[in-house]
Amino acid sequence: MATPDAGFPGAEGAESAPWAQLEAPARLLLQALQAGPEGARRGLGVLRALSSRGGEPFDWGRLLEALCQEEPVVQGPDGRLELKPLLLRLPWICQRNLMSLLMAVQPSLPQSGLLSVLQIAQQDLAPDPDVWLRALGELLQRDLGVGTCIEGASLLSKKCQTQLQGLCRGLGQGGRRLKSSQAPDPEEEKSRDFEQPGKRRKESEEEPASPEGNRAPKRLRCWEEEEDHEEERPEHKSLESLADGGGASPIKDEPVMGAKTGKDGSSLEDAKGLAKSLELPKAIQDQLPRLQQLLKTLEERLEGLEDAPPVELQLLHECSPSQIDLLCAQLQLPQLSDLGLLQLCTWLLALSPDLSLSNATVLTRSLFLGRILSLTSSASRLLKTALTSFCAKYTYPVCRALLDPVLQAPGTGPAQTELLCCLVKAESLEPDARVLMLGQILELPWKEETFLVLQSLLERQVEMTPEKFSVLMEKLCKRGLAATTSMAYAKLMLTVMTKYQANITETQRLGLAMALEPNTTFLRKSLQTALKHLGP
């Protein structure tokens, strides 16, 4: 991303600021992001202050769209005019804090708008791009599950990797060295902080004091390797070769998406070989037999559902998403019975601190996705309880790993649709969780099953901004001609016209009239009656 005007507050007047033409809330937010290293925190404070006034929620969709708007600017010594989006015209400190803020509030952002912003950030052709901005962008891309990401690749630049390795060696004790090639990515810890703002991981336990009086933090203990053993193990040089010109290499918590070639000529075939060589940390490998025994035990009994989680599960906090995926496969979590699934979810929900969103997404996919897609009859009570309780705490991971894939899967049938309808109507869901689910559904292409799930969701009187309601009405009206015989569509329209009558504008009412004109279901008269009640 560009580093245009290195400005703090006061570097340029309000009239000449790039955001001068934006609406007042957006201007206030971007001005707060100018506050140096404290900018992201102040931005969150602005959002809280705006919401506390009881007005409309902050319109992220409009701001993200404005960041992508191009305007002519004078560039270079020759004074040539170039089209440049607002995002790349912001001062560098504002760009950094904006990326940090977007990461903190990511679950509430419209995915399409966020993707557009990230694409513009990637297209920046500045000769000296800010590597910190690039790393933040890569973290956001990884969480969204987009782009060509290489499992095991580091977000750290070559220089940073070299400095980190030197630091690890310097922290070694008693003839031992800290080895970073088997360590969890330090950037993963940073992403966890952003993924769940306001929560802090507990301080790591400390080792007993050494004879020299020094203590080694728990996380660093995972990195310790005997010096002679380290020299025997070949270094993963491809981690450095995959770094993007001193910037950050992509990292992803899902399988590699196709065989493309990196900027430096490294192919994904090399990355696949690297991924195969990745192993679980030794501390976790040592606990595998114990974890397998725990899973076997919970398959056989229902007692103890309220028990505290076993201490072995705390090791999940030490894993990256790719390591969680590997651990799930080795423990054969998709093969758990519904009884075992409920017990395991009870333990996972009791973990403190909470799982990161990335790790929770991988666990959701492993525990539920295959199980739900393979349903041929109604889900068991145990499965419904496990899913709704997990979704109540980890709504975004469930939306990302379940709601979208199941609704778009070609084999989705009555059993899957019934379970999703049960999920979106669950009493345990907070209003914000339903808003998030609605946003995810609005991003998807709609089909018959989508109508059923959406109707179940909207029966709960979801609170929507005018912009989001406008998107809903636009998609509903467009589907009218293609769903003339659909009972699910007719029920959805009836729900919207009765429960959201006060939200419907005159223009939207005319759109509904056109959409309902060709309807041939037996609900046609009820729909026309509801439409008349919307009259001026």
UniProtKB/TrEMBL annotation:
Q: Which domain of life is it from?
A: Eukaryota
Q: Where is this region: Disordered?
A: 171-272
- Which Pfam families is this protein grouped with? FA_FANCE
The record, for Gene3D superfamilies, names: 1.25.40.480
Q: Where is the composition biased (Basic and acidic residues)?
A: 189-204
Q: What GO terms fall under cellular component here?
A: centrosome; chromatin; Fanconi anaemia nuclear complex; nucleoplasm
GO terms in the biological process aspect are:
gene expression; homeostasis of number of cells; interstrand cross-link repair; ovarian follicle development
Q: Per the database record, which ranges form the Fanconi Anaemia group E protein C-terminal domain?
A: 274-535
Q: Which PANTHER family match?
A: FANCONI ANEMIA GROUP E PROTEIN
- Full protein name: FA complementation group E
- What species is given as this protein's source? Saimiri boliviensis boliviensis
